[in-house]
């Protein structure tokens, strides 16, 4: 018997747990690969004989590729099988890693990074696979493990890059290291992970996908220009205006076409729109506020009047600790939700992050205050990091899980770009004369804006529908929203 819907279901209990374990390792490999390359950019620039400005495209093209790939591939997973598309995306990422290591040519390396854009779609596809087999608290625990191992992989990859670079005999050997976890992930998905049982009976909306890709790239380009030149610069304003116009035209098309690329009505529904709003605001802070935190820590208090003259190693410890507590929060959200419900655990995460940013805005003269901020904000953001996509998967029809979580990921990335531009403009406006450092008020305003973003996210989450039971497919007690 053949057909897209005829999939092999794993046995109950240990077999399904082993499937989740393999998917968890895939996310560890994804995080490791994403975190591995950034510390190697100076070495890559020297090897490729390009400037520091040119090598930034190494990260930028992968981000743009992800913006295009995630909505498209997650939707194709809903239509043709999440495991099938996950396999193809993993092969593309592995080929890209091979090309980066073996072909020391700048144009080829950039093309290879485009192939690695599908890294960002692994998580939506894996969440869809889990929700095809599990529900209730078991599904939540699985999603929490995926997200926590992704975050842990980012930390591990960043740390490993420095250690391997110091010990490896050549850059080639250093660049081959990501292929080890990628190869194990390929084995897991080709040999050990079952296909998801649900399909979306639909045609491919070519106009919708092309419009969404054009919209995402235009908006990201406009936000990049705003980061460099401010939101009031002509090029940034025109590009952002064009992106918003494309967004309106794309939404109009999607609402009218019988088989849309993205279900806009679902995105705007009461059960999903608060999650998307919170995800955008969460991305604005978690991705956009990293640079201000590092520059604040590195500032010389004797000249700037603030900061701790922190070394790169000390800053790395703070950033790693923030990621570590986020990992703990992502792993813990399902257990907390057993008592508070999903809306409760998400509100807890938003309020913890809100409180942490209010605290650091008021208290930032001692290093222990920074560490306290790291613990509270990291754990709170971890609850959001795991809980938001898990709840979105629960409220989405099974045949649309991949594309729904994929859109959430794209909105979160767009929020991160918006946050980076916003905070860059704030700190630039707080820089007086020819000084290279911003005034303390710029950093305080940045933390206040982060607190406002989490407050708005909390308000949005209160509009989620009232609590209801989510049945579990594997015998667990029903989980509540």
List the helices and strands and how they pair.
Layout: H1 14-36, H2 41-48, H3 52-55, H4 57-80, H5 82-102, H6 106-115, H7 122-133, H8 136-167, H9 171-176, H10 179-191, H11 206-229, H12 234-256, H13 264-267, H14 273-288, H15 290-298, H16 301-304, H17 312-362, H18 367-395, H19 401-429, H20 440-461, E1 469-470, E2 479-480
Antiparallel strand pairs: 1-2
Helix pairs in contact: 1-7, 1-8, 1-10, 4-5, 4-6, 4-11, 4-19, 5-6, 5-7, 5-10, 7-8, 7-18, 7-19, 8-17, 8-18, 11-12, 11-19, 14-18, 14-19, 14-20, 17-18, 17-20, 18-19, 19-20
**Helix content range of the residues, please?**
over 70%
Distance between the termini: 39 Å
Count of alpha/pi helices: 20
Mean pLDDT across the residues is 88
Count the E strands: 2
Order of helices and strands: HHHHHHHHHHHHHHHHHHHHEE
Instruction: Give the biggest beta sheet.
Output: 2 strands, antiparallel
- Low-pLDDT runs of 5+ residues are 1-14, 471-475
- Strand coverage percent: under 5%
Strand order of the largest sheet: 1-2
- The secondary structure category is mainly alpha
Rg result: 22 Å
Describe the structure concisely.
This protein has 481 residues and is mainly α. It has helices at residues 14-36, 41-48, 52-55, 57-80, 82-102, 106-115, 122-133, 136-167, 171-176, 179-191, 206-229, 234-256, 264-267, 273-288, 290-298, 301-304, 312-362, 367-395, 401-429, 440-461, and strands spanning 469-470, 479-480. It is built from 20 helices and two strands.
């Amino acid at each position: 018997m053949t057909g897209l819907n005829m999939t092999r279901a794993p046995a109950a209990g240990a077999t399904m747990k082993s499937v989740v374990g393999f998917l968890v390792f895939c996310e560890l490999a994804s995080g490791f690969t994403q975190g591995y390359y950034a510390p190697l950019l100076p070495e890559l620039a020297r090897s490729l004989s390009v400037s520091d400005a040119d090598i930034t495209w190494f990260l930028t093209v992968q981000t743009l590729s992800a913006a295009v790939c995630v909505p498209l591939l997650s939707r194709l997973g809903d239509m043709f099988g999440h495991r099938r598309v996950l396999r193809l995306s993993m092969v593309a990422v592995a080929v890209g890693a091979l090309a980066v290591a073996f072909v020391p040519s700048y144009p080829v390396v950039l093309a290879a990074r485009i192939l690695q854009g599908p890294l960002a779609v692994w998580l939506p596809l894996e969440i869809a696979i889990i929700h095809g087999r599990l529900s209730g608290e078991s599904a939540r625990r699985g999603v929490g493990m995926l997200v926590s191992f992704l975050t842990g992989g980012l930390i591990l990859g960043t740390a490993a890059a420095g250690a391997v670079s110091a010990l490896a005999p050549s850059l080639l050997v250093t660049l081959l290291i990501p292929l080890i976890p990628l190869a194990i992930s390929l084995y897991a998905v080709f040999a050990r992970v079952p296909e998801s049982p649900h399909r979306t009976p639909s045609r491919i909306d070519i106009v919708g996908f092309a419009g969404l890709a054009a919209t995402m790239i235009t908006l990201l380009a406009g936000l990049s220009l705003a980061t460099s030149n401010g939101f009031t610069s002509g090029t940034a304003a025109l590009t952002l205006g064009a992106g918003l116009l494309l967004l309106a035209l794309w939404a109009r098309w999607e609402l009218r076409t019988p088989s849309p690329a993205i279900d806009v009505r679902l995105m705007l529904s009461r059960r999903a729109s608060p999650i998307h709003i919170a995800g955008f605001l969460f991305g604005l802070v978690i991705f956009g506020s990293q640079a201000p935190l590092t520059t604040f820590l590195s500032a010389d208090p004797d000249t700037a009047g603030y900061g701790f003259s922190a070394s790169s190693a000390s800053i790395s410890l703070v950033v790693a600790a923030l990621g570590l507590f986020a990992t703990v929060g992502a792993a813990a959200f399902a257990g907390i939700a057993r008592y508070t419900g999903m809306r409760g655990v998400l509100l807890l995460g938003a309020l913890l992050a809100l409180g942490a940013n209010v605290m650091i805005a008021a208290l930032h003269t001692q290093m222990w205050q920074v560490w306290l901020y790291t613990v509270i904000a990291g754990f709170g953001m971890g609850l959001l990091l795991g809980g938001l996509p898990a709840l979105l998967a629960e409220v989405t029809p099974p045949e649309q899980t991949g594309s729904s979580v994929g859109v959430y990921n794209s909105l979160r990335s767009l929020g991160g770009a918006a946050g980076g531009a916003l905070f860059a403009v704030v700190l630039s406006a707080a820089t007086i004369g020819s000084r290279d450092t911003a005034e303390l008020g710029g950093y305080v305003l940045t933390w206040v804006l982060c607190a406002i973003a989490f407050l708005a996210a909390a308000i949005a989450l209160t509009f989620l529908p009232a609590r209801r039971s989510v049945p579990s497919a594997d015998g667990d007690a029903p989980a509540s929203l």
